[in-house]
Design a protein that fits this description.
The complex is a heterodimer. Chain A is mostly helical. Chain A contains five helices and two strands; from the N terminus they run ββααααα. Chain A starts with a strand and ends in a 10-residue tail after the last helix. Classes of the chains: A mainly alpha, B alpha/beta.
């Protein structure tokens, strides 16, 4: 189902993940969050930007366990824990944040 | 009821060895193997990977797939460490036969003789060959 942002239509898969990584922009992320009834603040953006950098380097979306550990390494233990990340992204930090980041669904995520 | 962030613990730990013998592109084996390893890493088992025969090309530096229209997934091997998959072995004979050395590889590995690889296989509970 395509998503409409600023008069432009973007292709997504049946779960709402962006079909083309290169289509991504910040307005698109905000629109996806709004559709889920969420609003993105700087803490969300920190994780979303981290995921985009991770994908750029490794060409995969990390599993939630790996994401949590890597966030901890970069942003400290206050943020590198599941509780914090689940509070930000209640649908599952890897799944939901990857969607807003324009990445595919994490490998192994069901 | 347990919360999703609470670990249940790994249970019995088995030794898993993934054997990679095919070149990275042309067949789906290399990518499938890598995906299985990444998915199975969640089960916190004792995982090792072996690269031998043309499988050593999977972790060769400087892959460029533009001309064959495939995604270059070689950077993903560098993510294995973050998944706690750190035991990567390469067969010395396979490297030598292809004029390669450890310096040509994009991840840290342990280079082993064919005999040592055979012994490593003997120690495993489960071997998956791709």
């Amino acid at each position: 189902m395509p998503i409409e942002v600023n008069g432009k239509s973007y292709e997504t898969d049946e779960e709402g993940y962006l079909a083309n990584l290169s289509d991504w922009n910040e307005d698109l992320a905000n629109a996806m969050a709004q559709a889920d009834g969420a609003e993105l603040d700087s803490n969300h953006w920190e994780v979303i930007n981290f995921l985009r950098e991770y994908y750029d380097e490794y060409q995969i979306a990390p599993a939630v366990r790996v994401l949590t550990k890597a966030i901890g390494k970069k942003l400290g233990p206050d943020k590198g824990n599941s509780k914090y990340l689940y509070e930000l992204f209640p649908y599952g930090p890897a799944k939901q944040a990857c969607k807003y980041a324009g990445l595919p669904k994490p490998t192994g995520c069901v | 009821m347990s919360e999703p962030w609470e670990d249940e613990g790994p249970g019995e730990i088995k030794k898993f060895l993934y054997v990679n013998r095919k070149s990275p592109y042309g067949t789906i084996y290399a990518l499938e193997s890598l995906e299985v390893v990444l998915i199975a890493a969640a089960f916190e088992q004792d995982v090792s990977m072996v690269f031998m025969d043309d499988g050593v090309y999977q972790i060769k530096k400087g892959q460029d797939t533009q001309q064959i229209g495939m995604k270059n997934f070689s950077p993903t091997y560098r993510a294995l460490e973050g998944y706690d998959v750190e035991k990567l072995y390469v067969e010395a004979e396979s490297l030598a036969e292809r004029g390669l050395s450890e310096d040509d590889l994009l991840v840290p590995v342990e280079v082993m003789s064919r005999d040592a690889i055979a012994r490593l296989m003997d120690e495993q509970d489960v071997i998956l060959s791709f």
